[in-house]
Design goal:
Length: about 140
């Protein structure tokens, strides 16, 4: 583990159960890879009637991208939280993720970034099975 949940909560606008990522396992200037088992927790705040829809993976990806933005900003200007702006090119490969037994690996590749926002390509997998692929834009808060 490179960065744990406590540190992640300090980088994104969500804390407690709404922080869906457990750890950052790798990051560099171009991408971040996170891991989590929060999809299996009955306390997951995105569950509806005991099920966690596959579309909720967009939020997992957005949180990973927000973590990456925070890591890129660290030391440069103190960092501002990033918020989901748009969702494009969505490919969903599962209806529900609460039954996925393995670790979720959330990868956010930065396609473009400046001081106002960023565009990321997101992939979420479990045991090398793709669950979602999506492109998102983030807007940095001020």
């Amino acid at each position: 583990m490179l960065i744990g949940k406590v540190e992640i909560e300090q980088m994104i606008p969500h804390g407690g159960q709404m922080c869906l990522l457990d750890e950052v396992i790798m990051w560099d200037q171009h991408k971040v890879i996170c891991a989590t088992m929060s999809h299996r927790r009955p306390s997951n705040p995105l569950m509806i009637n005991g099920q966690l829809g596959g579309m909720m993976l967009v939020e997992y990806g957005a949180q990973a991208a927000a973590v990456h933005v925070a890591l890129l900003q660290k030391g440069s200007r103190g960092g501002q939280p990033a918020y989901l702006g748009a969702i494009k090119q969505l490919a969903l490969f599962t209806d529900y993720i609460d039954k996925v037994e393995g670790l979720l690996i959330v990868e956010a590749d930065c396609l473009w970034h400046n001081m106002d926002g960023a565009i990321y390509s997101i992939q979420v997998k479990s045991a090398d099975q793709p669950l979602i692929a999506v492109r998102i834009s983030l807007l940095e808060g001020r």
